[in-house]
């Protein structure tokens, strides 16, 4: 794991040195930043969707448990003989 991280840093440093020696036009900067923003936005959307799905599943579980408890209490407290 540490070796992969070190390799990634070396590759990133090499790439950064190439980028540092070049001057970018305004249009190139806009394209680079736009691509980075779109990539990050996609990752954030995926993470958000996962959190929302987890919360909805948890909420549904609580609702189901509450509903089962409520029905069980209603049937237990019922005065109707045909329900027993």
Give the structure's gist in a few sentences.
By secondary structure, the chain is an all-alpha fold.
Notes on the structure:
It is a single chain. The protein has 84 residues and is an all-alpha fold. It has one domain (2-77). Helix content is 83%, strand content 0%. It is built from 2 helices and no strands. It is rod-shaped and about 85 Å long. The termini are far apart. Mean pLDDT is 82; it is low at 5-11.
Topology:
Elements: H1 2-20, H2 26-76
Domains counted in the coordinates: how many?
1
* Broad shape: rod-shaped
Distance from first to last alpha carbon: 63 Å
Query: How much β-strand is present in the residues?
Result: under 5%
Note the total helix count: 2
Mean pLDDT: 82
Low-pLDDT segments, ≥5 res: 5-11
Structural class: mainly alpha
| Biggest sheet statistics | none
Order of helices and strands, N to C? HH
Cα-atom Rg, whole angstroms? 28 Å
E-strand count: 0
Helix content: over 70%
Question: What labels would you give this structure?
Answer:
84 residues; nucleus; 83% helix
